[in-house]
Amino acid sequence: MRTLRAALAVSLLAGAYVVAAFMLVGQQIVPRRPRAKTSADPGGLVLTEQDQPALWAEVRQLAATAGTRAPDEIRLVPEANAAVSEETSLLGLRTGTRRMFLGVPLLQGLSRNQLHAVLAHELGHHSTTRSRLGALVHRSRLAIAEVAAGLSNPLAKRPFRTYARMFFALTRPLARAHEIDADRLSAHVAGPRTAAVTLRTLPALAAAWRIYLEQYVEAGTHYGLRPTRFFDNFANLMSDPERLEELARISAAPPETATSAYDSHPPLAERIERLEAMAAADEAGEDRSGNATSILRYPSQNFLALEDKTFAGSGLTPAPMADIGTVAGARAAAADAETFLNAMRENQILPATVRGALDLIASGNLDTLLDLVEAGSTSPEQEGEAKRKVIARLLGAAIAHELVSEDKARYELSWAGPWRLVDIAGQDVDPEDLAYQALGSPGYAAALRAWVHQLEGKVDTEAQAQPSDAPTRPPMPDGYIGALAPVAGDGVRTLLVTDTGLMLLKPSGSDRLATGLASVTAGSPGRKLIQRALDRPPAELAATANAAFVPWDQIRAVHLVHGSSGRRSADITTATGQGWSLRWTDAAEVEGHIWPAVDHYLGRRFTVD
């Protein structure tokens, strides 16, 4: 039966070219609208084999295991997804450039073994080990779907889409079998249990990424801001205890997503059940492969470069996520407060203030406020509750706006949030909950009114004991972006660029010995210094006596000079007036693209001659 269906699929695919020929004729007869030019850039950041040898070695090994050729390009993308695509012609019969796309959220949220499972599945779509026809059908379905979606002329669209539906209906069982083969390959590479856990994890990562974009990033773009440390913020969200519980619930029971007629994947629950059934009882349950970002050389540097490319030309102003949370929270409250108070004015409910609204509730005239809300077609009980929730939200926003305006409270970033309102003592305040309780009790409304207008900006005893000018601990570095050595000046021999600032290292006794041996054995002293520095965690290295760490926000200026005869220098000035004058030559060793990173973090504070 499968052989007969395969023969029919090939025949139907051949017939698609006849329809395509008529489609081309129809496009010539019927006037066409001019099509907008599209960019040839597939998007993302290209990861070359020279820059990422370990990644390419592992991908080539996975491709060999899958029985298919390795991709021609690997691109890092800002998506919670991974894919392998090909530029095809003749509806998938002729193949061209093959690209692998790696989503940063997957690298941050998966283990290295789980990433192997994902990539093996994607490469399995192009495998001809089990069935040459399966890979052809996969490519053809993608190509036909792309053509059908892009047609606009009725003469071309109707016959081709009718034919496409027939082709997809006939090849659906073959495509499903091909997906199952890709899952088996994933299990072969990473183990059935790891492959199953990966399928459970992917929907949770997709949900987390969607939450990050919709609740945090879009909150800033609405006000012309975009977050700095774009991908680090996502890692922070996934580390929040409340978010971890939420993601764990999604992984335990992954939701089935609605699929299009062109999707060939079997139901997710069925795929997970099949893989878990394959897992041996004694298969290792603990994954010790480490985070998938370890597959990259200098992941922070690559994430930074992708961040710059993602927002290039957006016109958005970079800002820390904490600042965006403060601004977005305050402005959202202000907008809802304006809506509520304007509605009171338009309906002659005066005074149109928070105090006026609470006075109405306290005097038993709640219905006057509830009538501001349009009623839906629900039961009286449901209608009343719905109105209460709307008024509570708007009144709560008006209370919050008043507190913020009078410096009695402020909004702070919350990864469980996206933001939270705290009073001046740092205690959480939930005006919406307070307003909801007031709607049900005139006495509570009177107390709330008094609290809103009598709240004083007092801090607790512990906070008062803390001097206002007490120094705050600078953020310690989390990862390296690049390095330069040897440099001369002020005793410094190594310059390190980290995700949170610059680090300048003076050589220890063992460093001097190691670099001396490197010189004797025809090695590179600069390379040895860099290796010795990068072998230690950045936070640990920054805490040593030989290191000077300066956070980005404490750097006043960095001036880079390209001198003659291959000589270079850089003057670094901090906000406290401390500075360093560094010198080096073209013979110095360089790891990563350090100056683009410095330019990214410092902006106008970085100058070049």
Describe this structure in words.
The chain has 22 helices and 18 strands. The chain is α+β, with helices and mostly antiparallel strands and 609 residues long. The protein folds into three domains: 268 residues, no CATH class; 136 residues, no CATH class; 129 residues, PH-domain like (Roll), CATH 2.30.29.30. The strands form five sheets. It has a five-stranded antiparallel β-sheet with strand order 13-12-11-10-17, sandwiched between helices. A four-stranded mixed β-sheet has the order 1-2-4-3. α1 runs antiparallel to α6 and α11 packs across α22.
Q: In one word, what is the shape?
A: globular
End-to-end Cα distance: 73 Å
Beta-strand share of residues: 15-25%
Structural class: alpha+beta
Query: Over the alpha carbons, how many angstroms does the gyration radius reach?
Result: 30 Å
What do the pLDDT scores average to? Answer: 82
Number of domains: 3
Low-confidence stretches: 17-39, 456-471
What is the number of E strands?
A: 18
Helix content range = 40-55%
Strand order of the largest sheet: 13-12-11-10-17
By DSSP (H or I, 4+ residues per run), the number of helices equals 22
- Summarize the main sheet: 5 strands, antiparallel
Subcellular location: Cell membrane
Pfam family, one: Peptidase_M48
Protein name: M48 family metalloprotease
InterPro entries: HtpX_protease, Peptidase_M48
